[in-house]
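Researcher: We're teaching a course module on how sequence relates to structure. For the next exercise, students receive a sequence and then see the predicted structure as tokens, so they can try to spot secondary structure elements on their own. Here is the exercise chain.
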Amino acid sequence: MTEPEATVIVVDDDASVRRGLERLLRAAGYRAETYGSAEEFLARPPIVGPCCLVLDVRMPGQGGLDLYQTLTKRGEYIP
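Model: And here is the predicted structure for the students to work with:
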């Protein structure tokens, strides 16, 4: 049985940052998902397999720290 591929999830309102990080992560062998806002990320289907988050602290609407608190309240503990 093979191990599931690790996913790095990037949430950042700057499209160029998202694109750059996605390219870098894929080149390093990671599966990458990107979202332009906390709200967009929260609307996603449930995450399956190992993953971690890279969050922009300052975004319009809900910032990265607020997003992490929301996830914790929902019982989603993602490093």
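Model: If you want an answer key for the exercise: Residues 71 and 77 are 7 Å apart (CA to CA). The chain has a mean pLDDT of 93.
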